[in-house]
Amino acid sequence: MPDSNPLLDKLLQSKNYRDICPDTVRRVWAECVRRYKKPKDVEKAAREALHGISGAFMTPGEARQLAYDMQDWCIKHTDVGLEKMLSLHASTRERLPVSDMDALYARIFEVTGRPRSVLDLACGIQPLYLGARGIKATGVDISGLAVDAVNRFGEVYGMPVSAACADILCPGAIPAGPFDVALLFKLLPLLERQKAGAALDVMNAVNANWLVVSFPTRTMGGRNVGMAAQYSDWMAAHIPAGRSVAASFETGNELFFILGKEARP
Q1: Please, what are the domains in the chain?
Q2: Three-state SS for 27?
Q3: Which of 117, 126, 145, 259 makes the best surface tag, with the fewest CB within 10 Å?
Q4: What backbone torsions phi and psi does residue 45 show, to the nearest 5 degrees?
Q5: What is the bridge-based pairing of β-strands 118-121 and 137-141?
Q6: Ordered DSSP codes for 200-257
């Protein structure tokens, strides 16, 4: 089956999936082609996979609300307004209130120092928080709506942020850098489920002085099933060459590791 055909083109133009990075749609399609022989089975499997990927995305309605809230925040500059913006995406909503996010980043920057540049992989709208705190941030995400929101914050309102709509599992998606700090929040398990070895490959590909990675410690239903211990063991076995764990801690439902570069002898 060719890489491009009417069924793939239909998927790329679908209302449900047109917000997903086209490279992601093509990658998922190619993976389904390798697994199934019948075109209808390929299409069904691809739609199911893309539905799972896009389930945590902002909706178009939430994106419109974010544009309004963004304008309001840029006039008033209140934490209440910032919290309203960040509540519109699942990945930042779970780290609210803003005071908790401030405490989280204070803990990170106590180890790394306040960065001049941050790379945020699978960023969602987290660069809005960083930009609001005066930190230069470059994001990468497969959600076009999230990327558009970040770029609007930078281009229209002058915040020090930008983002690219790209698939980290595709070549050339990770910005070259260098960066002071790279954030990989709850990303590595998702990469590993899609492609064995991808998590370590991505960590090795990032050009940053510090890597800050995190893992969930509870299920979607809030159950504690030993995930912290599981991911601690995984991290210990997957430290990138030339790095070591400078600090680790838990906060809320998340386990963090801060990886620094080892000093050369």
Answers
A1: 6-54 (1.10.8.10), 60-261 (3.40.50.150)
A2: helix
A3: 117
A4: -65, -40
A5: parallel
A6: HHHHHH--EEEEEEEEE-S-TT----SHHHHHHHHHHH-PPTTEEEEEEEEETTEEEE
**Whose structure tokens read 């980290």?**
168
DSSP bridge partners of 119: 138, 182
Tokens of 182: 């790279």
**Is the overall model pTM greater than 0.90, yes or no?**
yes
Q: What is the pLDDT of residues 122-134, one digit of tens each?
A: 999 999 999 999 9
Report the amino acid identity of residue 114: R
Please, are residues 257 and 245 in contact by the beta-carbon 8 Å criterion? yes
Number of residues assigned to the chain: 265
**Residue 25 CB: number of other CB atoms within 10 A?**
23
Q: d(Cα 229, Cα 207) in Å, to the nearest integer? A: 28
Starting at the edge strand found earlier in the chain, the sheet holding 243-251 runs 161-165, 137-141, 118-121, 179-185, 208-216, 254-261, 243-251
Dump pLDDT digits (tens) for 34-63.
999 999 999 999 999 999 888 888 999 999
Using CA atoms in the order 215, 67, 168, 23, what is the torsion angle rounded to 10 degrees? 140
| Beta-strand runs (E) in the chain | 118-121, 137-141, 161-165, 179-185, 208-216, 243-251, 254-261
Q: Are 95 and 104 in contact (CB under 8 A)?
A: yes
Q: Is 108 helix (H, G, I), strand (E, B) or coil?
A: helix
